[in-house]
Amino acid sequence: MSNAHAQTESVGEVVGCDKMSVTGEDEALPVEGSVKICCCKSSNEHSAEGSIEEMFLDSKGREIAELEQPEILSMLPNFEGKRVLELGAGIGRHTKNIAERASHVTAVDFMENFIQKNKEANGKHPHVEFLCADVTHLERQPASYDIIFSNWLLMYLGDDEVQKLLNKMLMWLVDDGQLFFHESCFGQSGDKSRTSNPTFYRSPMVYGALLDAAHNVTPDGSISSFELMWGRSLQAYIQLKSNPNQLCWLYKKVTKPGVANGHPGEHPSFQQFLDKQQYSLNGILRYERIFGKEFISTGGLQTTKEFVPSLNLKVGEKVIDVGCGIGGSAFYMAENFGVQVLGVDLSANMISIAQERTLQYQQLFDKVQFEICDVTVREFLPETFDVVYTRDTLLHIADKPTLFKKFLSWLKPGGRLLITDYCCGTDPWTPDFAEYVKHRGYHLLDVRSYGKIIEEAGFTKVVAEDKTSMFVSVLTEELTKFRKEKDSFIKEFTAEDYDAIVSGWAAKLERCQVGQQKWGLFLATKS
Fold this sequence. Notes:
The protein is an alpha/beta fold.
């Protein structure tokens, strides 16, 4: 194999290599002022011309590209002056824009014709490295990149290959470095016929599990892992193809002190805490059985129908559903009031289920979108939404005053706020109640104090109503109905799951009866 890393005399010189081109001792850090181009001998039925249509495997490839490219670029973290590794770089649609601002770009693709097209278009940049390579054998120096941008790559790798690559990505990224990736989920998106399809159409939940499992042990024994920042569908495909299956995620590398067995897990993020405990897949699905189809909040559809009319929703208005769960309220508002709903939730498991359920509502593809994110750090432009709607979610958030100020900023003048949430009574907490709150990671206020914080954030016409009697009535009704479905539930889940639901509902009723737990409804307006 020729030396793929020798500095070249002129931009665009091609250095030959085989398919396993960038491995082992030959690896070097990117060298500014040089371009290293390695092209493997590969062939593919869809890469003969290196065209947009071939890349997208779709007859509308050019139309999609025109909308998709600016959308993806707007999602990328700031790459000004950064070192970027672009995996699945293709013919260079994104390489050009990244190269104009990044200090270095390594553009990698397995298809020889694609990487040649990329080189022809972007070889003028002396700080771009072009590699035709098999990423499963790719090696880079530790901490050599600030951002990794992976486009339609992981879906062509098996789970073990993805896991190994993610572990290596953690090594290649600097601390707080970011991974952005885009994949096809659930099923095929392109309409071009193909004699074979090697794609793994995973659900977002599977990608979440693979990212959660990724780790790298540093020389000092610390553990590096990925922390989710957000995940969402691409609008270009929804607009042109009524297809919500194209998803993007942004993760950040975090490094924490190691644990005794040398593996991560002792210091989970709050998102991982939710997905592994209260909102595990099994936990969500069994909750749905008592709350009702597509709901993970008190009263399900019944309370949604009761509360939503107070918002006076109008066709075309924009609603953000904070803590949207698996989508019930979002689907209901969009279908019955013609509003646009963005559902956000910190639980990747919740959003994965919501995105999959969206496939059953094709008439709502252009009205309902879901995003995994931490609402306490997510930013939207001022006056983006007409309504902020959130049901039994903010109990997880300690700094409610700051969050309510963000809500106020996001709302248009005249915008409305609706919150239901777990609250507490005004009497001192019993040890049992304190332990329950601590175990769940809740931050509870009494109803009056809760309303006062909303008012202090700048909202007007604030209504803070104690709805505990309604809460007790709904819980009792849910529990009575659920007990009648014991046999069918146990066939689908387990007797232990059944007992957990029954004892959980009974405990909530008891806490309400002694005045420890309350349920509040809060309405407010932005002047």
